[in-house]
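Rotation project, supervised by the postdoc (A.L.). Task for the rotation student: set up a whole-complex structure prediction and record inputs and outputs verbatim in this book. Inputs entered:
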Amino acid sequence: MSTRLVTFTLDGHLYGVDVASVQEVLRGQPQTRVPLAPQSVAGLINLRGQVLSAVEMRARLGLPDRAADQEAMLVVVRVAGETIALLVDSIGAVVDVEEEQFELPPDTLTRASREFLHGAYKLEGQLLLALDVERAVAA
Amino acid sequence: MDEIVQEFLVESHENLDQLDRDLVALEREPGSRDLLASIFRTIHTIKGTSGFLAFGKLEAVTHVGENLLARLRDGKMSMTPQTTDVLLAMVDTVRDLLGAIEAGGDEGDIDVAPVVARISAVLEGRAEAAVVETTTAVPAVPVVPAVPVVPVPDATAEAEPTEESPHRRTVAESSVRVDVELLDTLMQLVGELVLTRNQIVRQASHQDDVDLVRSAQRLNLIASELQEGVMKTRMQPIDNLWAKLPRVVRDLGAQCGKTVTLAMVGKETELDRTLLEAVKDPLTHLVRNSVDHGLERPEARVAAGKPAEGVLTLRAYHEGGQVVVEVSDDGAGIDPERIAAKALERGLRTSAQLAETSPNDILQLVFLPGFSTAAAVTNVSGRGVGMDVVRTNIEAIGGTIEIDSVLGRGTTCRLRIPLTLAIVPALTVECAGDRYAIPQVSLLELVALDADRAADAVEDVNGASVHRLRGSLLPLVRLADLLGVESDRSDGHVVIAVLQAEGRRFGLVIDRVLSTEEIVVKPLVTQLKAIGAYSGATILGDGTVALILDVQALARRVLNSDVLEQERVADTGARPVVDESLRLLVAGLGGDRKVAIPLSSVTRLENFPTSGVEHIGGREVVQYRGGILPLVRLSSFYGTLSDRTDDELVVVIYTVGSRSVAIVVDEIVDIVDGGGDLQADVTAHGVLGSTLVRDRVVEVLDVRAAILSADPMFYEASEVDLRPELQEAM
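Outputs recorded:
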């Protein structure tokens, strides 16, 4: 059984989310910061009249901050009835993966990122980390 | 679900509400042929349709009920309380069955035999001895949630067609049923349109193009009308809410042994359906309160010269762009003295505070959490939860609640509710470079102080900023501090938004006021709602997102005075005294003499009645918060003559470690930053030295000596490090 994933990169790693949960992909948008919010909430953005909260995936996965000159891309996903924008480094291709390629996360993975991953798909020459979006955007 | 079944359910729920009303009305006028006929028709319709749709149990219940009703209608039997009870039980069973059908598509495992047996017993004239249970034991809460439809007002109530078609339409041909979700979407889209309109109108006003300006104006008009129109479609008469109340009042009245007439005025008053949902519980609570402890028992009423039957009046009307809903009873009213006594007993207020509170303001104390005046806990009320929750719920939708009561004449609770929630007038403000919206309902006024005035007008009471607004102290909170951001206003100007929430006023210090505008409220994701500072977000004219401040939540965070006070008292014990020694409370002692008291240990300023002073072992003491405080009269300590002759003492509560004294002064003059060094060259009895306060030399009180004069044991129990000066002064 094959699954179709939208891929994106974060700090040189390749991540993927199920294409069915992705609404659209955008360039960086002006954000309104939310004081007192958890650090991973980068801010609020206006997406054609809808207010979305943007989640900084680097902060969520415990990765170092993005370079100041690097513009973030937005992956807009629908999770549990709410629409949320994930801030990522760059957008990759849409990839079809097979179940045989899947493996649970390696034991060496740090806890923060391990918590938010379903597992990894072994692509040729690269690993595609399948993100558990629901857990990654939950408080 | 099958469309026919769906429609049947929708119709039946409306019919059931009508049935409840008719049955209660019938109890008052047992002879009314019209009411009987109406009830008979309603049951008959449900029975007809349930047979058609093969709902056997429903048919069985309604069939036997119909038989009973037919006899009543034809005058072969007459109404008795017992008849009413079984009929209400039948309605409840029908409701349960409909609920089961709605949930699972079939009638589930509801047992209809007992109720059929009861009705049959009444039919056959058998005494109902075997079945003692009456409907009053059945919870009066409707089992089935409201079905999402927009019924056309009164169409069901007035026209009860007599034909027996299973596809009977209760709604006139001219109206259409609309899915509520569709309406919500429309509302949202119109909200967007209004925002876009705002942007275009703003941009057009900067252009010279006359045609563009004209088009923008037309767009402005059309958008406004469209917004109004869509809002109207979401309006429902408040009667939808009230329809359930006659039954609640009847059952509750029976339970409490009271007879109650329910009068409803302004049934047709409309408000937004989401608001209707939101006021449902608070309103029911108020009605239950009125019946349970507002109205007296019949014998007490007769003794008071009132008719035995109590009157509960619901009134709804539009006023000033708001909907006002009143729940009033002609009961005993609320005794402010009882409320005051209760507040004192619970330690919610001091007697000094209460003495200064007007009777009407004392009534509002019933909204404090944990407040109940019910002498006993009944299964209806008296647990001390309720009115605070009612207020919280009403304020959550931007409404207000007030309570009026005349002893012996009755009580009125008045809810003021906005017409709609989605679009609210708001003030946009700036703080630390970000923009925030404050809903106008919470806003009382704006105060701007320039740097010169701010230095004087913003004062400090033991670490908390206050502003003297027309004589009374307004606690100030800096928004930047609340949100943990860095304010970018450094020129000393102070802009204060005076807000009201939770029944109290406070001043929110912001950087700048921008403008007032109508904003469209957008929900926040759960994660951000949980912060408890924002009630939503909105999109401003330039397309950026601004957060809407949740004034109620902020107020709860900053105004929990008892907690704040306790923390402050705890702080004082731990903190080195020197830190705060620079701040001084300046007090007058009469005869123009002023002394300064280091603020570090001042916990509160109070007024006590002179009559509250008692004598223990030759010393004056007062009772305060469950303890006994020795009184230190500074005027006698210094040998000055007090100018004060009225029956009130102005007292500074001074706390060191776990002990306190009450220092009596003539008046509180000011709270200042002492700033200047303590000059020891002016020394006198009871004076540590002098310092410059606003270019005037003020003596600094030797608190220790003063206290020891009243309570030689005061410091024995305390373990506080003493300032060197104080040690010297010993």
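Student's summary: The interface with chain A takes residues 191-192, 195, 432, 434, 483-485, 522-528, 530-531, 533-534, 537-539, 543-547 of chain B (CB under 8 Å).
Supervisor addendum: The two ends of chain B are 88 Å apart (CA to CA).
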